[in-house]
Amino acid sequence: MKIQSAQMGTEVVGVIGAGYVGLVTAATLASLGHEVICVDVDREKIEKLRSGDVPVVELGLPELLHQHRDRLTWSLDAADVFERARIAFVTVDTPGLPSGDADLSRVEAVIGRIPDDVPPMILAMKSTVPVGTGARIQRHLRRQGLDQVTYVSNPEFLREGTALRDVRHPDRVVVGADDLRDADEVARLWAPLGGPLRCCDLASAEMIKLAANAFLATKISFVNEIANVCEHVGADVAVVAEGMGLDHRIGADFLEAGLGYGGSCFPKDVAALKQLAGNSGYHFQLLSAVIEVNELQKRRVVSALAARLGTLAGARVALLGVSFKPWTDDTRESPALVLAERLTAEGATVVAHDPVVGAAAAKVLPAGVAVVRDLAEAVSGADAAVIVTAWPEYGGLLEQGMSRAMARPLLVDGRNMLDPYAAARAGYEWVGIGRPEYATAAAAHIAHPMAGAR
Ligand code: NAD
Ligand code: UGA
User: Fold this and answer.
1) Is the CB of 94 under 6 A from ligand 2?
2) Which domains are delineated in the chain?
């Protein structure tokens, strides 16, 4: 029987998929007073969670899960959710297929586990799915005679690294449903967190998620192209982005030029939207360019290094940062993986460092890439170092002796995170993305008016 918890207004809620989104969803719902049953098929993950360990790196998550452990149950069996929860959030992964389409096999596996005699419930989709998925799942449920299961789209907009903050202070809550009563039930769970609520039809909710990610990725590819032009014409993209971002119609966010976007979402979601459009007969030209610019952006670093070192064959290159962004251990589609492949293919010896990913980096990097724990060890004897991820730890490169330990103090700042003048003063030949090469030893003593602007 579906039950409400003893405390008025709290529910028994299911979360299926204990990854980045699932764990943050579970912890947040528990913190709002709900009893949460969180399921995963990964035995190792569930055992870790049962013993109080958190299998992903996310700021504040271990503390929140610990604080509300009495309201959290970890299970390997989705039946526990279908027996007891009134609302079940689906948070399984939906990776990209080689075709660019989203792989919905895990979502389908969850749907396949719903028993015929399940008590009335709402299935709330948080996983990112192609537009039309909700309608298809609803048809499937009807065909199976599961009329007591209703479906709601409740896309998630969190970013890794700031996931808890994003969920607790949402820019918006989107709930798509055929029946507004179902939308309302899901919306009420999130209401204590505030944020504008948009209830709409299923297809529009699904499209809001894909369009938002595609737009953010477009902003990044746009600023990266501006950066590339800046390099040709002598402008500084850091200054340009700041000046652009002051226009409230443009906004300052997501205008950081660099090695391009990575992660488990932008690459696959942009491809999925492009593919979705293609499958329905529309050629989404802009997204083709966004994807291509992003791919080339990672590779530009390889030519920049080759141009400066003469050849990459035999060169020792330190790759600093393996996660796709700081404050996470997630390496999915990290630019570091492409760079390591390309540099190794060109005959370079690659040494990788990441303050959080640590030894797990060796599993995702090409064979032959050494992974070291110590920053000084990573750069020691290197012909070049590349900052791939803007970990604050890389401010340590400016410490005395670091540049001198390199065979050649060539530092490519792939995230424009260091002050070029400070880098030059620390003895580096500093190369940014879309920034003029004014960080020479001579210039190091001149205070540039825009230094430290970002
Ligand atoms: P993840 O890979 O970290 O976690 C997914 C979890 O689901 C894994 O632990 C996996 O074992 C589990 N799983 C797979 N099949 C299952 C099944 N049949 N039953 C139970 N558990 C199962 O993925 P994630 O990063 O949390 O992303 C989940 C979804 O949310 C994706 O669709 C993603 O696009 C979307 N999303 C992710 C983010 C993000 O920043 N990571 C943000 C917004 C939306
Ligand atoms: C992104 C979105 O920001 C979230 O809103 C969304 O929920 C999520 O995808 C998702 O659907 O999974 P996330 O991938 O966790 O979140 O991280 P972001 O901060 O968006 O960064 C993505 C990539 O873009 C990173 O590689 C980052 O380095 C890069 N980036 C970001 C830039 O190159 N420049 C920028 O200005 C911002």
Assistant:
1) no
2) 12-200 (3.40.50.720), 289-445 (3.40.50.720)
